[in-house]
Amino acid sequence: MAENNKKILLSGVKPTGRPHIGNYFGAMKQFVELQDQYESLIFIADLHALTTARDAKQLKQDTLDLAIDYLAIGLDPEKVIFYKQSDVSEHTDLTWIFNCLTMMPYLARAHAFKDAEAKSKEVNVGLFDYPILMAADILLYDADVVPVGADQKQHVEIARDTAEKFNYNYGDTFKLPEPLILEGVKTVVGLDGQKMSKSYDNTIPLFAETDEIKRLVMTIKTDSKGVEEPKNPEECNVFALHKLFTPTDQLAEIKKRYVEGGIGYKESKDLLAENIDKYLAPLREKRAEIAKNPDQVLQILKNGAKLAKNRAKLKMTDVRAKVGIDL
After folding, report:
1. Helical (H) or strand (E) element with 146
2. What are phi and psi of 165, to 5 degrees?
3. Beta 145-148 vs 178-181: how paired, if at all?
């Protein structure tokens, strides 16, 4: 993969349970769409997960499940280096070197730390140091771009600051990455009208079965307008999801009936559930097929880790020599 002139894209995904349609439209789908445009490295961030994960068996299962999820939506291991973060020890090696260049007041300004502190949580060292491990994740592979939401730009800024500090002290070594803000990515509305999020318990799982989709869609929060009353589609949580799943012609007809009156929320939800199910069914079926062979999935991750480690070792050979620990 390294012989081409494509820019390098890198992203990590934490294994944190079942993905939902908000995760899919917010990031997962874009990784698949970008795999032909960029030379991509996508890793499962199991080391980052350790800041909160305390159940080893669950973390192992979540990691395997996440790998299956990404393969099911079309991530191609022939096009993408897909690996598990902890299989490449250079991530933590570089983190320690960066730690020794980073001042604590600087890290104390990181959003995740400030949020946790504001909620009166006890903050472990891993959470405090999370941005530096993330900087190592990115800089280890000379990533050109890192896909992030607009609210996550700080992570890339910290990586750039860290690269500049190392380069200033030891000579030109690390490329300065740019955030790749995914344009056109909409915030997916949850069942209660807030942003879809596991923390709000308002999600529709990406690989939900037909009955589960129907049950969850029926709980979407609406106002109390009757069937014949005109409704504003742009203020309706059900219609917001129609925009993602309903074919264009049908969407236009539903919108017309909203504006003119003549469609009730029950009918709108029935149509939505049917369209979500049609959209997710192929993904669900592919996932079930892949899940039958977990050993093959683990081999894909091992193959990816080997490719990633070859790159990481080259970078760390240079870094170790420059900081003086390579005799």
Report:
1. strand 145-148
2. -65, -45
3. parallel
Cα–Cα distance measured from residue 119 to residue 55, given in angstroms and rounded to the nearest whole number: 23
Candidates 163, 166, 91, 164; CA nearest to 130 is 91
**CATH fold for domain 8-187+294-323:** Rossmann fold (3.40.50)
Contact (CB, 8 A) for 210 and 24:
no
What's the fold here for domain 207-287?
Tyrosyl-Transfer RNA Synthetase (1.10.240)
- Residue extents of the structural domains in the chain: 8-187+294-323, 207-287
What are the pLDDT digits (tens) for 207-248? 999 999 999 999 999 999 999 999 999 999 999 999 999 999
Q: Which residue has the tokens 């750039």?
A: 160
**How would you classify the pairing of strands 145-148 and 80-84?**
unpaired
Provide the b/e sequence for 154-182 (b: ≥16 CB within 10 Å). Answer: ebbebbbebbebbeeebeebbbbbebbeb
Displacement of CA 288 from its chain's centroid (Å): 21
For tokens 């308002």, the residue is 202
* Spans of the chain below 70 pLDDT: 1-4, 183-186
* Whether 72 contacts 207, CB under 8 Å: yes
pLDDT of residue 184: 59
**Cα separation values, 294 from 57, 65, 221, 297, Å:** 15, 9, 38, 5
Q: Write down the pLDDT at residue 128.
A: 94
Contact between 185 and 30 under an 8 Å Cβ cutoff? The reply is yes
- Amino acid 2: pLDDT: 45
* Cβ proximity of 238 and 272 under 8 Å: yes
